[in-house]
Design a protein that fits this description.
Shape: elongated
Distance between the termini: 42 Å
Strand content: under 5%
Helix content: 55-70%
Low-confidence stretches: 1-22
Mean pLDDT: 79
Radius of gyration: 19 Å
């Protein structure tokens, strides 16, 4: 019984990925990691140093790929939106951290340490964003994630 359920689930997943089923893309699930090709591996869905979350960007990117025939976007457009959304997440994190630093008034050594940490965190965040962009733009078709014609 369990084996047949697993086989059925795999068949349905394969049919969905190949476009045989006309279903809407699943709603965002906060407990799921959308960063990485489904079933192969998952990358970190947030930047460990800054705390910026890439999971919404990864979800939107997956949705853009899945809906490429209806949204009219090619792979490059989906990938650029993905990069912009991740960078926006890094920018928001950096702004938040800098506001926390600015709250340390006057000459305060902790303020300058705070600023340095915010810049390091932002730098690692933007580096991770660039790495993810490089992976999807170079490998989106290779792993079968982007299936539309450009």
């Amino acid at each position: 019984m369990k084996k047949s359920a697993v086989v059925l689930a795999l068949m349905l997943a394969t049919a969905f990925i190949s476009g045989c089923l006309d279903e809407e893309f699943p709603a965002y699930n906060v407990s799921k990691n959308y960063c990485g090709p489904e079933g192969l591996f998952s990358g970190p869905n947030s930047n460990p140093l800054s705390g910026a979350s890439f999971n919404p960007a990864c979800y939107d990117h997956d949705k853009c790929y899945a809906d490429c025939e209806t949204n009219g976007k090619n792979q490059a457009q989906c990938d650029k939106e993905f990069k912009q959304t991740m960078d926006d997440s890094c920018d928001a994190m950096f702004d938040k951290k800098m506001n926390e630093c600015d709250a340390k008034s006057g000459w305060n050594p902790l303020k300058y340490t705070c600023i340095a940490n915010a810049r390091i965190s932002a730098s690692t965040c933007w580096t991770q964003s660039g790495t993810y962009y490089g992976l999807v733009s170079g490998g989106g078709k290779a792993v079968g994630a982007y299936t539309c014609e450009d």
